[in-house]
């Protein structure tokens, strides 16, 4: 019996692969992180003493780094237990609580027809590729060369050229035995009652093949070369194979890139995706010439829990970002949200990487804002809230927005977050009202500005007499990293790389480190991966994995920061005892800071919700703890060593 892909995908999505494999193996407690759906065990396919068999619920895949076996739910059962594929499907369907499909000859016939149409699309793709390299494709090759795309990139994305002819593709396909009905079903020719003789759908265009989630070509995008063309870009029409709102361009390549670490980036067009890939960003996808749809957003969330939505730096791009935010808002959940990256004015990703290089785009990603920031910016930027009525209107708008979040727990936290921002904003406004456009003239960095990427001050000024003091607000304990790499976090990571034995000694604390800087988070993941594959026995092996992951820039930045601060105990030539003591102190301070942050926020929320004496005293107690650690915090910021050889510890 042949199963539809949609049915197989449904039961795979409903059943975590760990629940299938976990019935037949014992998970290794040290390496396994069940909260993240990341599991390790000794391989059931070959004998081994240390676990090298890995499965990940998010991807629904397993892989053994020892013997090389890999697969999904079904392959695990067929290879381990020797059962047939239909029986494996039946078992997984039973676990998922999904009834097996009834044999339907018409459905099977349709699936067979789809397969034949895929073959036709593959023929068309090869035809367009050949035409690009022919004499007729000279103009197209010149265009791609002017856009900075190398021949290797063109080949990688299988770019092609549709010649300026009404019948070139049609005649080629007919010579290969493709029937007229198949050409029409693939959307490769224009036909209809008002068209006596069908003709090629794409003519004189750069061709972008569009793969499905399995890498098979199901449609094309075409970029006109003639300035007189009615549409600069056009896609294949909707067909049995292709439904535009359900497909993301470059989905397969991006999914593979994300498996190596990172998140998915959604940009606006084909050329943006290809230019970014050429610049080293293989994890970019794009909708197909329209605004992002709900189905496409769901695809993004399947790939990553926090995709970055990147929009052009103009008014149209900002409006597109707001539409995407409104669409995402009802569906966000804990561990399922989005960030928004806004490009410089008048730039798209293709322009940016060609003129300013990959580092400029990397900075755009680093500055990506949370969903809450984007909503706040939209509702407050340029506004004048100088009357009680206008203030009340803003509060109502924000309440209505947060009420759209379906997840009850997240809705509660969004409501608290917006209430705090309103308190801060109105407190500042009473001191000096913000005029329309003032945030923009300040460059988005004024006090209380929504452009600070979520790093807003706590309620203060006239709005709250219980705010954290100005000296505390300036301390490293309170301020957040933003684009600056925190020295304390850098010290922890550098110590772990230079002295890998500290990983095993402090595994329960180092495994779940909460780091604010993206480069350090990536290095942390690579360190743990090195340890999982027994590479953490030496500094050289860990650095080799960092290099292989393309993270040397972040590593060198962290080391440079440590050397500038003269924090010698965590460098590679320090004695292990010195490194151990310095690391222990840094880790203790880091964990204490995180705890105090959470307690402070909870205390402020409690006081804002219920302004009792008890809640006030509790907040003051936490503020006192901040003051008590000011001397230690000064050591964290400057490590207490103005020059020369640093003292031991932090």
On the 0 to 100 scale, the average pLDDT is 81
Instruction: State the CATH topology of the largest domain.
Output: DNAb Helicase, Chain A
Poorly predicted sequence stretches spanning 5 or more consecutive residues: 428-482, 629-650
User: What does the main sheet amount to?
Assistant: 5 strands, mixed
Tally of extended strands?
A: 15
How many alpha or pi helices? 29
Structural class: alpha+beta
What is the topology, as strand order, of the major beta sheet?
A: 12-11-13-14-15
Characterization of this structure:
The protein has 650 residues and is α+β, with helices and mostly antiparallel strands. It folds into four domains: 5-96, Zinc finger, CHC2-typedomain (DNA Primase, Chain A); 105-242, Alpha-Beta Complex (DNA primase DNAg catalytic core, N-terminal domain), CATH 3.90.980.10; 251-373, Dna Topoisomerase Vi A Subunit, Chain: A, domain 2 (3-Layer(aba) Sandwich), CATH 3.40.1360; 487-638, DNAb Helicase, Chain A (Orthogonal Bundle). It has 29 helices and 15 strands. A five-stranded mixed beta sheet has the order 12-11-13-14-15, with helices on both faces. A hairpin with an 8-residue loop joins strand 9 and strand 10 (233-235). The radius of gyration is 28 Å and the shape is globular.
């Amino acid at each position: 019996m042949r199963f539809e892909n949609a049915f197989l995908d449904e039961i795979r999505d409903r059943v975590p692969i760990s629940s299938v494999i976990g019935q037949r193996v014992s998970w290794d407690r040290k390496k396994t992180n069940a909260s993240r759906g990341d599991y390790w065990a000794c391989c059931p396919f070959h004998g081994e003493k240390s676990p090298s068999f890995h499965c990940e619920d998010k991807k629904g895949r397993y892989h053994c780094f020892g013997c090389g076996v890999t697969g999904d739910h079904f392959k695990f059962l067929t290879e381990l237990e020797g059962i047939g594929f239909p029986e494996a499907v039946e078992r997984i369907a039973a676990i998922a609580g999904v009834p097996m499909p009834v044999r339907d000859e018409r459905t099977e016939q349709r699936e067979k027809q789809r397969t034949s149409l895929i073959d036709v699309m593959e023929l068309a793709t090869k035809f367009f590729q050949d035409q690009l390299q022919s004499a007729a494709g000279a103009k197209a090759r010149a265009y791609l060369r002017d856009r900075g795309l190398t021949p290797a990139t063109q080949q990688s994305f299988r770019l092609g050229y549709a010649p300026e002819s009404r019948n070139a593709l049609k005649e080629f396909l007919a010579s290969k035995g493709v029937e007229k009905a198949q050409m029409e079903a693939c959307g490769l020719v224009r036909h209809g009652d008002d068209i006596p003789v069908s003709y090629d759908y794409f003519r004189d265009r750069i061709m972008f093949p569009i793969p499905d989630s399995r890498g098979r070509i199901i449609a094309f995008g075409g970029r006109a070369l003639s300035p007189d063309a009615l549409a600069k870009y056009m896609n294949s029409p909707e067909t049995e194979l292709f439904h535009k709102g359900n497909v993301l361009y470059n989905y397969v390549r991006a999914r593979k890139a994300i498996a190596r670490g990172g998140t998915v980036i959604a940009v606006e067009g084909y050329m943006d995706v290809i230019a970014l890939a050429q610049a080293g960003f293989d994890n970019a996808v794009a909708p197909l010439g329209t605004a992002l749809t709900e189905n496409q957003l769901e695809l993004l969330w399947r790939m990553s829990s926090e995709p970055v939505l990147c929009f052009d730096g103009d008014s149209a791009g900002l409006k597109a970002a707001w539409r995407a935010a409104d669409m995402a808002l009802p569906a966000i959940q804990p561990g399922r949200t989005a960030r928004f990256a806004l490009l410089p004015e008048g730039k798209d990703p293709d322009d940016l990487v060609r003129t300013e290089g990959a580092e400029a785009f990397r900075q755009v990603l680093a500055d990506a804002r949370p969903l809450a920031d984007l909503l706040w910016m939209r509702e407050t930027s340029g506004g004048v809230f100088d009357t009680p009525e206008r203030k009340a209107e803003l509060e109502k708008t924000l309440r209505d927005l947060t009420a759209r979040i379906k997840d009850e727990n997240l809705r509660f936290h969004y409501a608290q977050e917006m209430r705090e921002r309103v308190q801060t904003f109105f407190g500042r406004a009473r001191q000096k009202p913000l005029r329309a456009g003032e945030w923009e003239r300040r460059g988005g960095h004024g006090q209380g500005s929504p452009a600070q990427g979520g790093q807003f001050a706590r309620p203060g000024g006239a709005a709250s007499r219980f705010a954290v003091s100005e000296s505390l607000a300036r301390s490293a304990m309170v301020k957040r990293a933003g684009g600056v790499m925190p020295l304390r976090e850098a010290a922890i990571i550098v110590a772990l790389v230079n002295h890998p034995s500290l990983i095993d000694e402090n595994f329960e604390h180092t495994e779940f480190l909460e780091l604010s800087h993206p480069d350090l988070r990536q290095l942390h993941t690579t360190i743990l991966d090195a340890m999982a594959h027994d590479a953490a026995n030496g500094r050289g092996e860990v650095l080799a994995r960092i290099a292989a992951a393309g993270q040397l820039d972040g590593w060198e930045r962290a080391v440079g920061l440590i050397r500038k601060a003269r924090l010698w105990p965590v460098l590679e030539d320090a004695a292990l005892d010195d490194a151990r003591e310095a690391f222990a102190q840094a880790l203790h301070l880091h964990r204490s800071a995180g705890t105090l942050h959470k307690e402070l926020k909870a205390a402020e929320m409690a006081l804002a919700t219920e302004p009792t004496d008890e809640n006030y005293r509790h907040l003051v107690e936490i503020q006192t703890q901040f003051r008590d650690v000011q001397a230690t915090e000064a050591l964290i910021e400057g490590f207490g060593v103005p020059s020369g050889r640093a003292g031991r510890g932090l």
